[in-house]
Protein backbone atom coordinates (compact mmCIF):
# COMPACT_ATOMS: atom_id res chain seq x y z
CA UNK A 1 0.00 0.00 0.00
CA UNK A 2 1.41 3.38 -1.02
CA UNK A 3 0.50 6.69 0.57
CA UNK A 4 -0.09 9.10 -2.32
CA UNK A 5 -1.13 12.20 -0.38
CA UNK A 6 -0.75 12.75 3.34
CA UNK A 7 -2.90 15.71 4.34
CA UNK A 8 -2.70 15.17 8.08
CA UNK A 9 -2.30 12.29 10.46
CA UNK A 10 -5.93 11.26 9.85
CA UNK A 11 -7.13 12.95 6.65
CA UNK A 12 -5.36 11.30 3.74
CA UNK A 13 -5.47 9.42 0.45
CA UNK A 14 -4.16 5.89 0.06
CA UNK A 15 -3.53 4.15 -3.23
CA UNK A 16 -3.19 0.41 -3.79
CA UNK A 17 -1.53 -0.93 -6.92
CA UNK A 18 -1.57 -4.61 -7.73
CA UNK A 19 0.53 -4.56 -10.92
CA UNK A 20 1.87 -2.30 -13.64
CA UNK A 21 -0.90 -1.50 -16.11
CA UNK A 22 -0.53 -3.59 -19.27
CA UNK A 23 -1.83 -2.24 -22.57
CA UNK A 24 -3.50 -4.06 -25.45
CA UNK A 25 -1.26 -3.23 -28.45
CA UNK A 26 -4.17 -3.53 -30.89
CA UNK A 27 -6.40 -0.87 -29.34
CA UNK A 28 -4.14 1.01 -26.91
CA UNK A 29 -6.41 0.36 -23.94
CA UNK A 30 -5.31 -0.79 -20.49
CA UNK A 31 -6.18 -4.46 -20.12
CA UNK A 32 -8.55 -5.55 -17.38
CA UNK A 33 -8.02 -8.71 -15.31
CA UNK A 34 -10.44 -10.46 -17.70
CA UNK A 35 -8.59 -9.70 -20.96
CA UNK A 36 -7.62 -13.34 -21.58
CA UNK A 37 -11.14 -14.48 -20.69
CA UNK A 38 -12.62 -12.10 -23.28
CA UNK A 39 -10.27 -13.42 -25.94
CA UNK A 40 -11.23 -17.00 -25.09
CA UNK A 41 -14.89 -16.06 -25.57
CA UNK A 42 -14.30 -14.34 -28.92
CA UNK A 43 -14.53 -10.80 -27.61
CA UNK A 44 -14.04 -7.95 -30.08
CA UNK A 45 -11.88 -5.69 -27.94
CA UNK A 46 -11.94 -1.91 -28.35
CA UNK A 47 -10.62 1.04 -26.36
CA UNK A 48 -13.29 2.50 -24.05
CA UNK A 49 -12.58 5.03 -21.28
CA UNK A 50 -8.90 4.18 -21.70
CA UNK A 51 -9.42 0.43 -21.24
CA UNK A 52 -9.51 -2.61 -23.51
CA UNK A 53 -13.08 -3.93 -23.30
CA UNK A 54 -15.32 -6.12 -25.49
CA UNK A 55 -17.86 -4.21 -27.57
CA UNK A 56 -19.37 -7.60 -28.52
CA UNK A 57 -18.43 -11.25 -28.79
CA UNK A 58 -17.84 -12.92 -32.14
CA UNK A 59 -20.20 -15.81 -31.66
CA UNK A 60 -22.68 -17.38 -34.08
CA UNK A 61 -25.63 -16.02 -32.12
CA UNK A 62 -26.28 -12.54 -33.49
CA UNK A 63 -23.79 -10.22 -31.79
CA UNK A 64 -25.08 -7.14 -29.94
CA UNK A 65 -28.74 -7.94 -30.64
CA UNK A 66 -28.41 -11.45 -29.21
CA UNK A 67 -26.46 -10.19 -26.18
CA UNK A 68 -29.19 -7.62 -25.52
CA UNK A 69 -31.94 -10.26 -25.62
CA UNK A 70 -29.77 -12.64 -23.59
CA UNK A 71 -29.73 -10.07 -20.79
CA UNK A 72 -33.43 -9.20 -20.97
CA UNK A 73 -34.52 -12.85 -21.10
CA UNK A 74 -31.84 -14.79 -19.18
CA UNK A 75 -28.56 -13.34 -17.85
CA UNK A 76 -25.76 -11.31 -19.41
CA UNK A 77 -22.27 -11.12 -17.89
CA UNK A 78 -20.38 -7.82 -18.34
CA UNK A 79 -16.84 -6.70 -17.51
CA UNK A 80 -16.98 -3.23 -15.89
CA UNK A 81 -13.48 -3.31 -14.41
CA UNK A 82 -12.72 0.11 -15.91
CA UNK A 83 -14.89 1.63 -13.19
CA UNK A 84 -13.09 3.18 -10.23
CA UNK A 85 -13.53 1.52 -6.83
CA UNK A 86 -12.87 3.53 -3.67
CA UNK A 87 -13.10 2.60 0.00
CA UNK A 88 -13.55 5.41 2.52
CA UNK A 89 -12.52 4.96 6.15
CA UNK A 90 -12.73 7.03 9.32
CA UNK A 91 -15.38 8.46 11.62
CA UNK A 92 -15.82 11.57 9.48
CA UNK A 93 -15.88 9.97 6.03
CA UNK A 94 -19.68 10.18 5.55
CA UNK A 95 -19.62 13.84 6.54
CA UNK A 96 -16.81 14.51 4.07
CA UNK A 97 -18.45 12.60 1.21
CA UNK A 98 -21.58 14.73 1.68
CA UNK A 99 -19.43 17.77 0.88
CA UNK A 100 -18.82 16.26 -2.56
CA UNK A 101 -22.07 14.48 -3.49
CA UNK A 102 -25.75 15.43 -3.41
CA UNK A 103 -27.13 12.23 -1.82
CA UNK A 104 -28.00 11.41 1.79
CA UNK A 105 -24.94 9.34 2.67
CA UNK A 106 -25.34 9.81 6.43
CA UNK A 107 -28.86 8.43 6.21
CA UNK A 108 -27.83 5.15 4.58
CA UNK A 109 -28.54 2.03 6.60
CA UNK A 110 -25.56 -0.32 6.96
CA UNK A 111 -25.43 -2.58 3.92
CA UNK A 112 -27.33 -0.23 1.58
CA UNK A 113 -26.31 2.18 -1.16
CA UNK A 114 -27.62 4.89 -3.46
CA UNK A 115 -27.01 6.49 -6.82
CA UNK A 116 -25.73 10.04 -6.39
CA UNK A 117 -23.96 12.86 -8.23
CA UNK A 118 -20.59 14.53 -7.72
CA UNK A 119 -20.94 18.26 -8.45
CA UNK A 120 -18.69 21.17 -9.41
CA UNK A 121 -18.60 24.63 -7.79
CA UNK A 122 -20.72 25.74 -10.77
CA UNK A 123 -23.40 23.19 -9.84
CA UNK A 124 -22.79 20.91 -12.81
CA UNK A 125 -22.14 17.17 -12.77
CA UNK A 126 -18.60 15.81 -12.55
CA UNK A 127 -19.83 12.21 -12.36
CA UNK A 128 -22.61 9.93 -11.21
CA UNK A 129 -21.61 7.19 -8.78
CA UNK A 130 -22.83 4.52 -6.37
CA UNK A 131 -22.12 5.07 -2.67
CA UNK A 132 -22.74 2.23 -0.17
CA UNK A 133 -22.38 2.08 3.60
CA UNK A 134 -20.74 -1.29 4.16
CA UNK A 135 -21.71 -3.28 7.24
CA UNK A 136 -18.01 -3.92 7.59
CA UNK A 137 -17.42 -0.31 8.65
CA UNK A 138 -16.27 1.50 5.52
CA UNK A 139 -18.03 3.37 2.70
CA UNK A 140 -17.72 1.84 -0.76
CA UNK A 141 -17.91 4.03 -3.87
CA UNK A 142 -17.95 3.10 -7.56
CA UNK A 143 -17.27 5.90 -10.06
CA UNK A 144 -17.21 5.96 -13.86
CA UNK A 145 -14.04 4.83 -15.59
CA UNK A 146 -13.77 7.89 -17.83
CA UNK A 147 -14.22 10.23 -14.84
CA UNK A 148 -12.29 8.57 -12.04
CA UNK A 149 -9.14 10.69 -12.34
CA UNK A 150 -11.02 14.00 -12.25
CA UNK A 151 -13.18 12.59 -9.43
CA UNK A 152 -10.01 11.86 -7.46
CA UNK A 153 -8.72 15.37 -8.14
CA UNK A 154 -11.99 16.82 -6.85
CA UNK A 155 -11.89 14.67 -3.72
CA UNK A 156 -8.28 15.60 -3.01
CA UNK A 157 -9.05 19.30 -3.45
CA UNK A 158 -11.96 19.04 -1.02
CA UNK A 159 -9.87 17.02 1.45
CA UNK A 160 -7.36 19.86 1.53
CA UNK A 161 -10.18 22.23 2.57
CA UNK A 162 -11.70 19.74 5.01
CA UNK A 163 -8.68 19.76 7.29
CA UNK A 164 -7.46 17.41 10.01
CA UNK A 165 -10.42 15.13 10.48
CA UNK A 166 -10.74 11.35 10.46
CA UNK A 167 -11.10 10.63 6.74
CA UNK A 168 -9.11 8.20 4.61
CA UNK A 169 -9.73 7.63 0.89
CA UNK A 170 -8.40 4.30 -0.39
CA UNK A 171 -8.38 4.15 -4.19
CA UNK A 172 -8.16 0.49 -5.16
CA UNK A 173 -6.71 0.95 -8.68
CA UNK A 174 -5.90 -2.36 -10.39
CA UNK A 175 -6.25 -4.62 -7.34
CA UNK A 176 -9.93 -5.30 -8.02
CA UNK A 177 -11.97 -6.40 -11.01
CA UNK A 178 -15.64 -5.49 -11.32
CA UNK A 179 -18.21 -7.54 -13.19
CA UNK A 180 -21.97 -7.21 -13.57
CA UNK A 181 -24.39 -10.08 -14.06
CA UNK A 182 -27.79 -8.79 -15.19
CA UNK A 183 -31.13 -10.31 -16.12
CA UNK A 184 -34.03 -12.39 -14.79
CA UNK A 185 -31.76 -15.42 -14.26
CA UNK A 186 -28.94 -13.42 -12.62
CA UNK A 187 -29.96 -14.22 -9.05
CA UNK A 188 -30.36 -17.93 -9.76
CA UNK A 189 -26.92 -18.09 -11.37
CA UNK A 190 -25.22 -15.98 -8.70
CA UNK A 191 -26.72 -18.11 -5.94
CA UNK A 192 -24.65 -21.04 -7.23
CA UNK A 193 -21.37 -19.26 -6.33
CA UNK A 194 -22.45 -17.99 -2.91
CA UNK A 195 -21.30 -19.55 0.38
CA UNK A 196 -23.81 -21.89 2.00
CA UNK A 197 -26.13 -20.04 4.34
CA UNK A 198 -26.48 -16.91 2.18
CA UNK A 199 -29.85 -16.69 0.42
CA UNK A 200 -30.02 -13.94 -2.20
CA UNK A 201 -33.82 -13.77 -2.05
CA UNK A 202 -33.37 -11.73 1.12
CA UNK A 203 -30.97 -9.23 -0.51
CA UNK A 204 -32.75 -6.06 -1.65
CA UNK A 205 -32.02 -3.71 -4.56
CA UNK A 206 -28.99 -1.54 -3.69
CA UNK A 207 -28.00 -3.83 -0.81
CA UNK A 208 -24.52 -5.37 -0.63
CA UNK A 209 -21.93 -7.06 1.56
CA UNK A 210 -18.43 -8.53 1.63
CA UNK A 211 -18.32 -12.25 0.92
CA UNK A 212 -16.61 -15.15 -0.80
CA UNK A 213 -17.65 -15.85 -4.40
CA UNK A 214 -16.93 -19.25 -5.94
CA UNK A 215 -14.61 -19.85 -2.99
CA UNK A 216 -12.64 -16.65 -3.64
CA UNK A 217 -12.29 -14.51 -0.48
CA UNK A 218 -12.17 -10.72 -0.43
CA UNK A 219 -15.11 -10.14 -2.78
CA UNK A 220 -18.07 -7.78 -2.51
CA UNK A 221 -21.54 -8.20 -4.02
CA UNK A 222 -24.12 -5.44 -4.56
CA UNK A 223 -27.61 -5.95 -5.96
CA UNK A 224 -27.60 -3.26 -8.64
CA UNK A 225 -26.62 -2.66 -12.24
CA UNK A 226 -27.21 -0.41 -15.21
CA UNK A 227 -29.57 -2.32 -17.48
CA UNK A 228 -32.94 -1.95 -15.77
CA UNK A 229 -32.90 -5.65 -14.90
CA UNK A 230 -32.31 -7.42 -11.61
CA UNK A 231 -28.69 -8.31 -11.10
CA UNK A 232 -25.46 -7.87 -9.18
CA UNK A 233 -22.15 -6.09 -9.41
CA UNK A 234 -19.30 -8.27 -8.17
CA UNK A 235 -16.03 -6.78 -6.93
CA UNK A 236 -13.35 -9.46 -7.10
CA UNK A 237 -9.59 -9.55 -6.36
CA UNK A 238 -7.97 -9.08 -9.77
CA UNK A 239 -6.01 -12.32 -9.76
CA UNK A 240 -9.10 -14.45 -9.09
CA UNK A 241 -11.60 -12.67 -11.36
CA UNK A 242 -11.54 -15.35 -14.03
CA UNK A 243 -12.28 -18.04 -11.43
CA UNK A 244 -15.51 -16.27 -10.48
CA UNK A 245 -16.74 -15.47 -13.99
CA UNK A 246 -15.93 -18.99 -15.19
CA UNK A 247 -18.04 -20.38 -12.35
CA UNK A 248 -20.94 -18.14 -13.39
CA UNK A 249 -20.56 -19.23 -17.02
CA UNK A 250 -21.25 -22.81 -15.97
CA UNK A 251 -24.90 -21.86 -15.47
CA UNK A 252 -26.92 -22.68 -18.60
CA UNK A 253 -28.66 -19.29 -18.69
CA UNK A 254 -25.51 -17.13 -18.45
CA UNK A 255 -23.55 -15.79 -21.41
CA UNK A 256 -21.16 -12.91 -21.98
CA UNK A 257 -22.28 -9.49 -23.21
CA UNK A 258 -20.33 -6.42 -24.30
CA UNK A 259 -20.45 -2.64 -24.38
CA UNK A 260 -22.85 -2.51 -27.32
CA UNK A 261 -25.57 -4.42 -25.49
CA UNK A 262 -24.92 -2.52 -22.27
CA UNK A 263 -25.57 0.75 -24.10
CA UNK A 264 -28.87 -0.29 -25.68
CA UNK A 265 -30.03 -1.84 -22.39
CA UNK A 266 -29.31 1.28 -20.32
CA UNK A 267 -30.98 3.54 -22.90
CA UNK A 268 -34.15 1.41 -22.85
CA UNK A 269 -34.06 1.79 -19.05
CA UNK A 270 -33.76 5.59 -19.36
CA UNK A 271 -30.34 5.65 -17.67
CA UNK A 272 -27.76 8.33 -18.44
CA UNK A 273 -24.34 7.70 -19.93
CA UNK A 274 -21.83 10.18 -18.55
CA UNK A 275 -20.23 12.17 -21.36
CA UNK A 276 -23.35 11.80 -23.52
CA UNK A 277 -26.46 12.54 -21.47
CA UNK A 278 -24.85 14.28 -18.50
CA UNK A 279 -21.52 16.08 -18.16
CA UNK A 280 -19.89 19.09 -16.55
CA UNK A 281 -22.16 21.45 -18.50
CA UNK A 282 -25.32 19.84 -17.09
CA UNK A 283 -26.88 20.41 -13.69
CA UNK A 284 -29.03 17.86 -11.80
CA UNK A 285 -32.30 19.73 -12.43
CA UNK A 286 -31.78 19.92 -16.19
CA UNK A 287 -30.89 16.23 -16.19
CA UNK A 288 -34.13 15.42 -14.28
CA UNK A 289 -31.99 13.88 -11.54
CA UNK A 290 -33.31 16.12 -8.77
CA UNK A 291 -34.66 12.98 -7.08
CA UNK A 292 -31.07 12.10 -6.07
CA UNK A 293 -31.33 14.99 -3.57
CA UNK A 294 -34.47 13.54 -1.96
CA UNK A 295 -37.97 14.96 -2.04
CA UNK A 296 -39.27 18.35 -1.00
CA UNK A 297 -38.13 19.14 2.54
CA UNK A 298 -35.41 16.46 2.55
CA UNK A 299 -32.31 17.08 4.65
CA UNK A 300 -29.96 17.41 1.68
CA UNK A 301 -32.18 19.97 -0.02
CA UNK A 302 -32.67 22.06 3.10
CA UNK A 303 -29.22 21.76 4.71
CA UNK A 304 -27.31 21.67 1.40
CA UNK A 305 -23.60 22.11 2.20
CA UNK A 306 -22.30 20.25 -0.86
CA UNK A 307 -20.22 21.78 -3.64
CA UNK A 308 -22.32 23.88 -6.05
CA UNK A 309 -25.63 23.54 -4.17
CA UNK A 310 -26.43 27.25 -4.44
CA UNK A 311 -26.31 27.07 -8.24
CA UNK A 312 -29.45 24.95 -8.61
CA UNK A 313 -31.16 24.99 -5.18
CA UNK A 314 -33.02 27.91 -3.64
CA UNK A 315 -32.04 28.83 -0.05
CA UNK A 316 -35.11 27.02 1.35
CA UNK A 317 -34.36 23.91 -0.74
CA UNK A 318 -36.62 24.41 -3.73
CA UNK A 319 -35.39 23.52 -7.21
CA UNK A 320 -34.40 26.44 -9.41
CA UNK A 321 -36.07 26.76 -12.80
CA UNK A 322 -34.07 25.60 -15.80
CA UNK A 323 -34.33 26.43 -19.49
CA UNK A 324 -33.99 22.84 -20.74
CA UNK A 325 -34.75 19.32 -19.55
CA UNK A 326 -33.68 15.78 -20.40
CA UNK A 327 -36.46 13.81 -22.08
CA UNK A 328 -37.16 10.55 -23.86
CA UNK A 329 -37.96 10.70 -27.57
CA UNK A 330 -39.74 8.12 -29.75
CA UNK A 331 -41.92 7.87 -32.83
CA UNK A 332 -39.31 8.64 -35.51
CA UNK A 333 -38.81 6.11 -38.29
CA UNK A 334 -35.01 6.01 -38.14
CA UNK A 335 -32.61 6.06 -35.17
CA UNK A 336 -31.48 9.54 -34.14
CA UNK A 337 -27.86 9.56 -32.97
CA UNK A 338 -26.07 11.95 -30.64
CA UNK A 339 -26.18 15.67 -31.63
CA UNK A 340 -29.17 15.16 -33.94
CA UNK A 341 -31.11 18.44 -33.83
CA UNK A 342 -34.62 18.64 -32.38
CA UNK A 343 -37.26 21.14 -33.51
CA UNK A 344 -40.73 22.16 -32.42
CA UNK A 345 -43.78 20.68 -34.17
CA UNK A 346 -43.59 23.31 -36.92
CA UNK A 347 -40.06 22.25 -37.82
CA UNK A 348 -39.03 25.91 -37.80
CA UNK A 349 -37.55 26.43 -34.34
CA UNK A 350 -34.67 24.43 -32.92
CA UNK A 351 -35.45 23.38 -29.32
CA UNK A 352 -32.62 20.99 -28.46
CA UNK A 353 -30.63 17.96 -29.51
CA UNK A 354 -30.31 14.22 -29.01
CA UNK A 355 -27.64 12.96 -26.61
CA UNK A 356 -28.14 9.18 -27.06
CA UNK A 357 -30.11 7.20 -29.60
CA UNK A 358 -30.47 3.64 -30.86
CA UNK A 359 -32.86 1.09 -32.29
CA UNK A 360 -34.49 -0.62 -29.31
CA UNK A 361 -34.14 -4.41 -29.66
CA UNK A 362 -36.89 -4.95 -27.07
CA UNK A 363 -39.44 -2.50 -28.50
CA UNK A 364 -38.32 -2.95 -32.11
CA UNK A 365 -38.37 0.80 -32.78
CA UNK A 366 -35.99 3.77 -32.58
CA UNK A 367 -35.66 5.52 -29.21
CA UNK A 368 -33.56 8.43 -28.05
CA UNK A 369 -32.74 10.68 -25.13
CA UNK A 370 -31.91 14.35 -25.31
CA UNK A 371 -32.50 17.88 -24.06
CA UNK A 372 -35.30 20.20 -25.15
CA UNK A 373 -36.45 23.63 -24.04
CA UNK A 374 -38.56 23.27 -20.89
CA UNK A 375 -41.73 24.45 -22.68
CA UNK A 376 -41.51 21.35 -24.91
CA UNK A 377 -40.52 18.81 -22.24
CA UNK A 378 -43.96 17.45 -21.31
CA UNK A 379 -44.58 13.83 -22.31
CA UNK A 380 -46.75 13.63 -25.42
CA UNK A 381 -45.43 16.86 -26.95
CA UNK A 382 -45.07 16.68 -30.73
CA UNK A 383 -41.60 17.54 -32.02
CA UNK A 384 -39.56 17.12 -35.19
CA UNK A 385 -36.22 15.35 -35.51
CA UNK A 386 -33.73 16.32 -38.22
CA UNK A 387 -32.24 12.98 -39.25
CA UNK A 388 -29.64 13.34 -42.00
CA UNK A 389 -31.31 16.49 -43.33
CA UNK A 390 -34.86 15.13 -43.32
CA UNK A 391 -37.45 16.15 -40.74
CA UNK A 392 -39.24 13.25 -39.05
CA UNK A 393 -42.15 13.61 -36.60
CA UNK A 394 -41.63 12.29 -33.07
CA UNK A 395 -42.97 12.71 -29.56
CA UNK A 396 -41.51 13.41 -26.16
CA UNK A 397 -41.96 10.18 -24.18
CA UNK A 398 -41.68 9.22 -20.53
CA UNK A 399 -38.72 7.11 -19.49
CA UNK A 400 -37.92 4.32 -18.91
CA UNK A 401 -38.94 3.11 -22.34
CA UNK A 402 -38.94 -0.48 -21.05
CA UNK A 403 -40.32 -1.38 -17.62
CA UNK A 404 -37.52 -1.87 -15.12
CA UNK A 405 -37.26 -4.99 -12.95
CA UNK A 406 -35.33 -3.85 -9.88
CA UNK A 407 -35.69 -6.46 -7.16
CA UNK A 408 -37.50 -5.90 -3.88
CA UNK A 409 -36.92 -8.47 -1.16
CA UNK A 410 -40.06 -10.00 0.40
TrEMBL record:
<keyword id="KW-0808">Transferase</keyword>
<dbReference type="InterPro" id="IPR006223">
    <property type="entry name" value="GcvT"/>
</dbReference>
<protein>
    <recommendedName>
        <fullName>Aminomethyltransferase</fullName>
        <ecNumber>2.1.2.10</ecNumber>
    </recommendedName>
</protein>
<dbReference type="GO" id="GO:0006546">
    <property type="term" value="P:glycine catabolic process"/>
</dbReference>
<dbReference type="InterPro" id="IPR013977">
    <property type="entry name" value="GcvT_C"/>
</dbReference>
<feature type="domain" description="Aminomethyltransferase C-terminal">
    <location>
        <begin position="324"/>
        <end position="402"/>
    </location>
</feature>
<dbReference type="GO" id="GO:0005739">
    <property type="term" value="C:mitochondrion"/>
</dbReference>
<dbReference type="Pfam" id="PF08669">
    <property type="entry name" value="GCV_T_C"/>
</dbReference>
<keyword id="KW-0809">Transit peptide</keyword>
<dbReference type="InterPro" id="IPR006222">
    <property type="entry name" value="GCVT_N"/>
</dbReference>
<comment type="function">
    <text>The glycine cleavage system catalyzes the degradation of glycine.</text>
</comment>
<dbReference type="Pfam" id="PF01571">
    <property type="entry name" value="GCV_T"/>
</dbReference>
<feature type="binding site">
    <location>
        <position position="233"/>
    </location>
    <ligand>
        <name>substrate</name>
    </ligand>
</feature>
<dbReference type="InterPro" id="IPR028896">
    <property type="entry name" value="GcvT/YgfZ/DmdA"/>
</dbReference>
<comment type="similarity">
    <text>Belongs to the GcvT family.</text>
</comment>
<dbReference type="GO" id="GO:0005960">
    <property type="term" value="C:glycine cleavage complex"/>
</dbReference>
<feature type="domain" description="GCVT N-terminal">
    <location>
        <begin position="35"/>
        <end position="293"/>
    </location>
</feature>
<keyword id="KW-0032">Aminotransferase</keyword>
<dbReference type="GO" id="GO:0004047">
    <property type="term" value="F:aminomethyltransferase activity"/>
</dbReference>
<keyword id="KW-0496">Mitochondrion</keyword>
<comment type="subunit">
    <text>The glycine cleavage system is composed of four proteins: P, T, L and H.</text>
</comment>
<dbReference type="InterPro" id="IPR027266">
    <property type="entry name" value="TrmE/GcvT-like"/>
</dbReference>
<dbReference type="InterPro" id="IPR029043">
    <property type="entry name" value="GcvT/YgfZ_C"/>
</dbReference>
<dbReference type="GO" id="GO:0008483">
    <property type="term" value="F:transaminase activity"/>
</dbReference>
